[in-house]
Amino acid sequence: MSNIFKQANEIAENNTVPMSTAIEIASCIDMMRSGNVHFRFLKKDGSVREAVGTLQQEVVQPTLQGSGKELPKNLVAFYDTEKEAWRSFDVRRWLGYDE
Fold first, then answer.
1. Within 10 A of 85 (CB to CB), how many other CB atoms are there?
2. How does pLDDT run across 5-57, given as a tens digit for each residue?
3. Long-range pairs of 26-34 with CB within 8 A, sequence gap ≥ 24
4. Nearest in space to 74 (alpha carbons), one of 3, 5, 4, 10
5. What DSSP state is assigned to residue 81?
6. What is the Cβ-side half-sphere exposure of residue 11, based on CA atoms within 13 angstroms?
7. Cα 1 vs. chain centroid, distance in angstroms?
8. Radius of gyration (C-alpha) of the chain in whole angstroms
9. Which element (helix H / strand E) includes 10?
10. How far apart are CA 89 and CA 78, in angstroms?
11. What b/e sequence results for 44-70 when a residue is b if at least 16 CB atoms lie within 10 Å of its CB, and e otherwise?
């Protein structure tokens, strides 16, 4: 089983999202590891948040500080390249990404 499907399984099992959504989120995470990805999710206030995020090692490494706390299983952390700060989104509020 590929890493994307393993991660999608974890997302789907730990949250109330369909497997198709979990696969899309896992694919987005995988793409962020090698570059910038434009995606959308609903903020807590119900507004749509458009983000350009990355998990590319050379970009995020200098920004890592960490609190030692593990994120809740429903959250995905990403580095927002436009705001130049770490952000997260709730997988249950995912809207999609641009390929």
1. 9
2. 999 999 999 898 999 999 999 999 999 999 999 999 999 999 999 999 999 98
3. 27/97, 28/97, 29/55, 29/76, 30/3, 30/4, 31/97, 32/56, 32/78, 33/57
4. 10
5. T
6. 27
7. 21
8. 13
9. helix 3-14
10. 8
11. eeeeebebbbbbeeeebeeeeeeeeee
- Specify the pTM: 0.88
Which tokens hold the place of 8?
A: 């999608």
Separation of alpha carbons 76 and 72, rounded Å: 9
pLDDT tens by residue, 44-90: 999 999 999 999 988 877 666 666 678 899 999 999 999 999 899 99
Q: Which two tokens stand for residue 47?
A: 């507004």
Q: Hey, what's the torsion of the CAs at 49, 46, 60, 16, to 10 degrees? A: -120
What type of residue sits at position 13?
Answer: E
